[in-house]
Amino acid sequence: MSEDRRGAGPDGLVLIDKPSGITSHDAVALVRRALGTRKVGHAGTLDPMATGLLVMGVGRATRLLRFLGDLTKLYEGTMRLGVETETLDADGDVTHTAPVDVIDDAIDAAMAAKLGASAQRPPAFSAVKVGGRTLHEAARKGEVLEAPARIVRVDRFERTGRDGDDVTFVAAVSGGTYVRVLAADVGAALGCGAHLTALRRTAIGPFEVADGRPPDDPGEPLPLDRAVAHLPRCELIAEEAIAASHGRILGPAAIEGPYGVYDPDGRLVGVYRDDGGKARPLVIIAPA
C-alpha cells in the first residue's frame, strides 16, 4: 500500500467478493469505512442479487479504473426457463409463465446464437442514466425510459448443467454486458421465457474472485499500477519522467491505444496515448 503525495490516505486496488443482497454502492461504503477514506470507486457494478468480484480503486487508483472497462468478465450463473420477471432476475415480480418443452440441444443453440458482437439495450431496471435519471428509478414509478443500445461482445456462453427448468452456465463477456438480458434472450428464442436466478462474477481480466475479501475487511490495497498492468508499458528516461509527471506532451511511443509510462525506477508516472506525432497524457499518477 502506498500513500498519496499529501499523505491523505491509501492508494491501490482492493478485490472484493460482494455478497448477495447489497448493492455495489453499499460495498463501496463498507470499504470506505474500513480503510478510513472517502476516495473509493469500483470498476463495474454487480446487481444486488449477484455475488462475486468487484475491483475497487482507492485514492489515486480511482483515476485508473477507466482502463479496466475493456477487460473480459467471467461469470457463473443459473437461469430458469418458463418464468419471466420484470427485472429479468429473481429480484423482480413474475410477469409471465409458460410450459417448458425444450431439449438441451435447443438450449445450446440459443446460447450459441448470442456469441460475438451485438447491440444490447440496458434493461429497464438498471443503474444506467438517461437525462440525468436512472432507468430503475423511472421504472419503479411506472415510467418508460430507454437507454441507447450499446455494442457488447460475448466470447463464451455455455450450458454447464440442467436440473429441470434450471440451466447453469458460464459466460465470458465484454464490460457493460447484462447477463440477465442474455438469459431473457435465450428464453425468448426458446419461446418459453427465462430469468436469471443466480449470478457470480468470478474474474475480471487477470483479477480473480478467489483473491477477493469481504467489503468490511478489504485488507491492504494492491499497488495502484496493478490497474494498468494489462496495458503496454513504456519506460522513460529521467528527463522524460519528470516532464510526464507534470503532464507534458512527449514524443510518440509508436504504441496503439493507451499505455503506461514508467520512470527509470519502474514507478508508474501515468497513462499516455499517441496522437499523431505526439504522446498526450490521459492520466498522470506522479510517483509519491
Task: Offer a few descriptive terms.
Pseudouridine synthase, Archaeosine Trna-guanine Transglycosylase, Chain: A, domain 4, 3 domains, 4-stranded mixed sheet, 5 helices, 18 strands, 16% helix
Radius of gyration, in angstroms, nearest whole number: 21 Å
Q: Helix- and strand-based class?
A: alpha+beta
Choose one word for the global shape: elongated
Q: How large is the count of helical segments? A: 5
Helix content: 10-25%
How would you briefly describe this protein structure?
With 288 residues, the chain is of the alpha+beta class. The protein is 16% helix and 36% strand. It folds into three domains: 87 residues, 2-Layer Sandwich (Pseudouridine synthase), CATH 3.30.2350.10; 130 residues, Pseudouridine synthase, CATH 3.30.2350.10; 54 residues, Archaeosine Trna-guanine Transglycosylase, Chain: A, domain 4, CATH 2.30.130.
